[in-house]
Design goal:
The protein has five helices and eleven strands. By secondary structure, the protein is of the alpha+beta class.
Amino acid sequence: MVIMIVVLLLLYGVASSWATDYELLLEDPDIFSTCSEGPPGSINIRQAMNFDDLVVDQEADTLHLSGNVTVIWDVQPTDRITAKLDFFHYNRGSWEPTIFGMATQNFCSIMYDKHQYWYKYWTKFIANRHEVEKKCLRGPRTVLVHEPFDLILKLENFNGPLLRGRLKMVVLFNAVDELNIPRPNPICLEIRGEALKLK
């Protein structure tokens, strides 16, 4: 019995160590969806930021982005911004949490940290870094000037449990005042899609 358990664990370890590539097919052409189960009082990303000057073109598995986003989120310049990102998998009629996620209690302090995913996929393309580092996502009227960049909707050499079917990423930004009391208007957004195994 013990030998059988050891063999099964070894097989699982070998199977989960094989790298897999995935492509994400977005469900919503607008990319961002309103959270289906956001916290009370939450607002969607388009209520917190003006995307009128951002250009997004999708070509196969690549999003071409350029232009500006203006923060209109009604929070105070002294607030601390928290951020949380979680992945969910759709299974038998409901969204189930996965093991993938990350969170920070002070997003502004790490938004330009080169070791963070936020930086790799987003903030390194914000050209007016000095202004944004100072104001962060605290508006009003903070402008995020993006240099043109491509976001490839592929996950390459992924080592972990097999991904399949519908997935969603839920991102939550909250402003916390100087007394550590959360503001009543957190930003909640979802990005939904389907993971397709490539190899």
